[in-house]
Amino acid sequence: MTLIPAAVVEMLNPGSELKDLELGPPFYLMHGVTDVIVFDPETTLVLHRRISETVRRQSPVTIDLACGCRLTAYSRGGPTMRGLALPTCCAHGHARGGGGSGG
SS in 3 state form for 10-65? Predict the structure, then answer.
């Protein structure tokens, strides 16, 4: 049995920009992933790719994923306070963030 994730979330890493921005997203989408999110903590750019569209946003931003989950990219102050909140998906049970019990 092969499981395909509903979404892939990447933090952009210095030195791997080509893989994270140009190679990874098309590969994931071609293999059935619906949403690909790439977050650059240095610039606070959030790239959201789907088969049909690519959207660039600045954090903080909350993204509604096709599976019904929600993901938040945020930046508070300096570079040590930038990151991604875990996807929250109470209705579907894919993932839970914010310290809640799994489901």
Answer: EECCCCCHHHHHHHHHHHHHHCCCCEEEEEECCCCEEEEECCCCEEEEECCEEEEC
The residue extents of the domains of the chain are 7-88
Q: Residue 71 is inside which H or E element, if any? A: strand 70-75
Give domain 7-88's CATH architecture. Alpha-Beta Complex (3.90)
pLDDT digits (tens, 9 = 90+) for 24-37: 999 999 999 999 99
Output the pLDDT for position 86.
57
- The residue assigned the tokens 């959030």 is 46
> What pLDDT does 83 receive?
62
Helix (H, G, I), strand (E, B) or coil at 79: helix
